[in-house]
Amino acid sequence: MDFVLSGAAACGACLFTNPLEVVKTRMQLQGELKSRGSYQVYYRNVFHAFYTIGKVDGLAGLQKGLVPGLFYQFFMNGVRLGSYAIIESSGYIHTNGRVSAVKTTAAGAVAGVVGAVMGSPIYLVKTHLQSQSTASIAVGHQYKHQGMFHALAAIYRQHGILGLWRGSSAAVPRVSVGSAAQLCTFSSSKELVIDLQVFPSNSWLVALSAGMISSVVVVLAMTPFDVVSTRLYNQPVDNLGKGQLYKGFTDCFSQTLKKEGLTGLYKGLGASYFRLGPHTILSLFFWDELRKFYKQFR
C-alpha cells in the first residue's frame, strides 16, 4: 500500500505540473552546445515559453508527454517514496528519536536509485515526446513518435531491450541527488516545524510548509543533473544506439560546462523551479496526507 499511495500522490502532482515539465524540457534543449548569442532564442523565459508553445502547438502542446509522465510518476515515485516509507517505518532514519540527516540522505539516495532504474524507459519516451514540436519553434533532436507505446515499440525494435535504458547513466545521479535532497530536507523540516509549534503536529500545514522548504533545496541541487539528463535522453543515436553528441553523463556535463558555461548547467532554472517546486510540494503533501488517511482506517 505504501507503493500505491506514493504513486498516486505523484500522479496527482503530475496533472498540475506537466505543462511546466514541457516548458523546462524545451528551455534545457534550447541552444544545446552553443555559446550564448550564437543561436535563435525561441523561449525567452518561462512565461514566454508558455505563450509560444500554446500559440504554435496549441494548448494540447502544453500537455505533451502526459501519459508517460503519469506512468513514470506512478512507477518511479511509487518505488522511490514507497521504499523510503518502509525504511522510515522501520525506524532506520532516526537516531535517539530524532531525524538523522545522514541516514535520511542515504535512505533517500538509495530509494532514488531504485526508482530511477525502474522508470528510465518511460522517462526516455517522455523526454522525446515533450521535445517534439512544430518546426518553427523546434529545439534539440526531433523524434517522430506517435505516442508512448509506439515510442517504446520503435526503440525496442531498433535498439533492443538495452536501448530502452539509454540515458539511465544520467537518470541515476539525477534522481538519487534529488531524492536525497528532497527526503532529507522534508523529514528534517517537518520535524523542525513541529518543534517550533508553528502549526498543530497533525495539521496538513506541517507537510505543506516542509514541502516548500524542500522544494528550494531540490531545485538548486538537481537542476544541473536534470539538464544533463534531458540532453542525454533526447540526443540522436546511431544504428547501434550510441549517442551522437555525448558519450555519457561525464562527457555531457563537461561539454555543456565548456561550451555554455555554468549557466548552461542551470538553463531553465526558472522553469525548473516552477515545475519541480510545485511538484515537490504537491507530491510530498499528497503523500503525507494519504499515508495519514490510510493509517486512520487500517
Automatic annotation (TrEMBL):
Q: Where are the Solcar repeats?
A: 1-90, 99-192, 202-293
Predominantly, its location class is mitochondrion
**One Pfam family per UniProt:** Mito_carr
**Keywords from the named record:** Membrane, Mitochondrion, Mitochondrion inner membrane, Repeat, Transmembrane, Transmembrane helix, Transport
The cellular location(s) given in this protein's UniProt record come to: Mitochondrion inner membrane
Record's GO cellular component terms: mitochondrial inner membrane
Instruction: Give the bilayer topology.
Output: Multi-pass membrane protein
Which InterPro entries does UniProt cross-reference here?
Answer: MCP_dom_sf, MCP_transmembrane, Mito_Carrier_Antiporter
Family (UniProt): Belongs to the mitochondrial carrier (TC 2.A.29) family.
PANTHER family reported in the protein's UniProt record: RE38146P, SOLUTE CARRIER FAMILY 25 MEMBER 35
Q: What's the name of the protein?
A: Solute carrier family 25 member 35
The protein's organism comes out as: Stegastes partitus
Upper classification of the source organism reads:
Eukaryota, Metazoa, Chordata, Craniata, Vertebrata
